[in-house]
Specification:
By secondary structure, this protein is of the alpha+beta class. It starts with a strand and ends with a strand.
C-alpha cells in the first residue's frame, strides 16, 4: 500500500554531516551492516551512496542516489523508506532540484556549530516552492556548538518557519551526556539504553541543573507540534543528535514513519494525479549512466506516482510515443540491486535502457498525462570542448550525448563552427565532465573559453524564428533535442534582443 511508503531526501550544506547521517539511517534500517565511519579516514569514510570516483577523491556527493530500506514503525506496521541522497555541493542545484521533485518530505541537516549555511537555505527554498515538509536535524551536538535557543531562533527567523523542539541535548560538546526525548522524558546516553530523566534520574549520572530550566523555556516559547502545519510546510519539528555517534538517528526514523506524509499527488498539465488512481504512471527525474563501469548500463530513475506497477508491464514514455515493456525494473538497497516484481506509489524504480528514456519523461499506460515541473536551467558557465586526440570525435559525441541525457551537462551545437559547447550551472560539473570522459569513455579532452556567456531557448512562429536567424546565425545553436538556442555574449545582449524581437520568447528554462 502506498500509505506505507515514505519517500524523502536529506538536504544540507556540505560538511554538515549528511553523508554520515545517510549511512546511519541505512545502518538502522538494516540496508548496510558496517558503518564506513568505523575507519575514520580516507575512502572508508564515504557512505554507500558516494560511488563515483571524483566523489571518493573529493569526499562530496555529486550524484543523487536512491536507497530503499524497510523498518517496523512504532505501531507495528512495516514502512518502506525510499531515501534520495541529494548532492549538497552548491554547483549541483539542477540535479538536486530535479531530485527534490520526486520526494514527499525532507530532512534538513544543520551543523550545531555553524547554523544555517547558504546551501541549506537554497535547498530549503526549493522545498518551499513545492511545499515539501521539513524535519530538522541539528547535528554534531557532541562537539562544541551554539546554544540550542540560538539555533532554533535562527531556523524560525531565517526560514520563516515555526519550530517545535522534539528532543533536547543534555549538555553539549565536552559536557554532552545524551539526548532527551521530550515526549517520553527518556534520555539516550552514550553508554546506550535509555534512562528516565523527568522525575526519575539515574543516580550515577549527574545531569546539568539548567536542562530542566531550558526545557520549561522551550516548551513555553515554541509552539506545540501540529501535524497539519508540518505537512503543509509551515512548521518543522526539530531533533538534536550526532550522526557520527548514532544519537538521535532512531528517533529520526520514527519521526519520518509517524509524521512524514505518504505519497502526495503530483502536478500534470491537466491537474494533479492522485496516488490512488488505478492507472500506472510515473516520471523520470534522473538518468545515470555507467553505475557499474564493468557494464555500460544506463538507468532511468522513475518516481511511481499512481497505480500498482508489475514487472513486464508496458508503459508509454511521453518523449517516445510508443509503449515499451519494462522487463527488469530495479529496486535499490544502497549499492545492491534487486529486480522489482511490483512497486507502489512513492517507490523509485530503475529502468535499464539505451537512451530511450530521458529526464522529464512521463511514463503511463494510456499516454494521456504529462507531469510538469522538471525544467532544464539556462547554463551559467559555457565552455568549448577540445579533443587532445582528434580521431576520437565519435566517442566524444557519444559521451556528451550520454552525459547531457543524465543532466550532468547541456550540449549546444552551433549553427556555424564545429566545436561543440557544453553548459553547466556550476564549476564542479566541469570537473566531473573531464573526469568521466577519461574514466568511462577513454576520451582526453580540454575545456576552452567560449565566446558566449549564457544561453536562452527561443520560441516563436516559424517566420519569426527564420527572420531572427537571418541576422543572428553566428549566435544560434541547437540543443540535443534540436530546439533553437540563442547564445548570448552577456545579459545585456539578451535584453537587447528581447526588445528588438518582441514576437520571440527568450527563456531561461525549458520544461520537457
Amino acid at each position: 500500500m502506498s500509505n506505507s511508503r515514505r519517500t524523502f531526501a536529506i538536504i544540507s550544506h556540505p560538511d554538515a554531516g549528511k553523508t554520515t547521517l545517510t549511512e546511519k539511517l541505512l545502518l538502522q534500517g538494516g540496508a548496510i551492516h558496517l558503518a564506513g565511519e568505523v575507519k575514520a579516514r580516507g575512502q572508508a569514510r564515504r557512505a554507500r551512496s558516494d560511488w563515483m570516483k571524483i566523489e571518493q577523491q573529493r569526499g562530496i556527493s555529486v550524484t543523487s542516489s536512491v536507497m530503499t530500506f524497510e523498518k517496523t514503525a512504532p505501531d507495528g506496521s512495516t514502512i518502506t523508506f525510499n531515501l534520495l541522497d541529494t548532492p549538497g555541493h552548491e554547483d549541483f542545484s539542477e540535479d538536486t532540484y530535479r531530485t527534490l521533485t520526486a520526494v514527499d518530505s525532507a530532512i534538513m541537516v544543520i551543523d550545531a556549530a555553524k547554523g544555517i549555511e547558504p546551501q541549506t537555505r537554497k535547498l530549503f527554498e526549493v522545498c518551499r516552492l513545492r511545499s515539501v515538509p521539513i524535519i530538522t536535524f541539528i547535528n554534531k551536538v557532541d562537539r562544541e556548538g551554539r546554544a540550542c535557543f540560538d539555533l532554533l531562533d535562527e531556523v524560525a527567523d531565517k526560514l520563516a518557519l515555526d519550530v517545535c523542539p522534539m528532543s533536547w541535548p543534555v549538555g553539549m560538546g565536552g559536557l554532552f551526556e545524551g539526548i532527551l526525548d521530550i515526549a517520553t522524558g527518556k534520555v539516550s546516553r552514550p553508554e546506550g539504553g535509555s534512562k528516565e530523566f523527568l522525575g526519575k534520574v539515574d543516580e550515577n549520572v549527574t545531569l546539568p541543573e539548567d536542562v530542566g530550566e531550558e526545557l520549561e523555556l522551550a516548551q513555553a516559547g515554541y509552539p506545540e507540534f501540529d501535524l497539519e502545519a508540518y505537512r503543509s510546510g509551515d512548521l518543522t519539528p526539530v531533533y538534536f543528535g550526532s550522526a557520527l555517534k548514532n544519537f538521535g538517528v532512531a528517533e529520526l526514523i520514527d519521526a519520518i514513519a509517524k509524521y512524514a506524509p505518504p505519497p502526495r499527488p503530483q502536478p500534470t498539465e491537466a491537474g494533479p494525479v492522485e496516488p490512488e488512481n488505478k492507472e500506472v504512471s510515473g516520471f523520470i527525474f534522473k538518468v545515470q549512466a555507467n553505475m557499474d563501469p564493468m557494464h555500460r548500463d544506463r538507468i532511468a530513475f522513475m518516481r511511481l506516482v499512481s497505480g500498482t506497477f508489475k514487472r513486464g508491464m508496458k508503459l508509454t514514455p511521453s518523449g517516445l510515443g510508443k509503449p515499451i515493456a519494462i522487463h527488469s525494473p530495479i529496486l535499490f538497497f544502497a549499492q545492491d540491486r534487486e529486480i522489482a516484481d511490483s512497486a507502489e506509489p512513492g517507490d523509485i524504480i530503475g529502468i535499464p535502457n539505451h537512451g530511450t528514456l530521458r529526464v522529464g519523461d512521463t511514463l503511463s499506460e494510456k499516454n494521456q498525462i504529462r507531469f510538469t515541473g522538471l525544467p532544464n536551467f539556462a547554463p551559467e558557465i559555457l565552455r568549448r570542448v577540445a579533443l587532445k586526440d582528434p580521431t576520437k570525435t565519435k566517442q566524444l559525441r557519444k559521451a556528451l550525448d550520454d552525459l547531457s541525457e543524465e543532466g550532468v551537462i547541456q550540449v549546444f551545437y552551433p549553427e556555424i563552427g564545429s566545436q561543440w559547447i557544453v553548459g553547466v550551472v556550476g564549476q564542479l560539473q566541469l570537473d566531473v565532465l573531464i573526469s568521466r570522459l577519461q574514466a568511462e569513455y577513454k576520451v582526453e579532452a580540454m575545456l576552452e573559453a567560449s565566446p558566449f556567456d549564457t544561453a536562452r531557448w527561443i520560441r516563436g512562429s516559424d517566420q519569426a524564428l527564420r527572420d531572427f536567424a537571418e541576422f543572428n546565425k553566428m549566435n544560434l545553436a541547437k540543443d540535443r533535442d534540436g530546439d533553437p538556442v540563442f547564445m548570448a555574449k552577456s545579459a545585456w545582449d539578451v535584453g537587447y534582443q528581447q526588445e528588438r524581437n518582441p514576437d520571440l520568447t527568450f527563456s531561461a528554462t525549458k520544461e520537457r
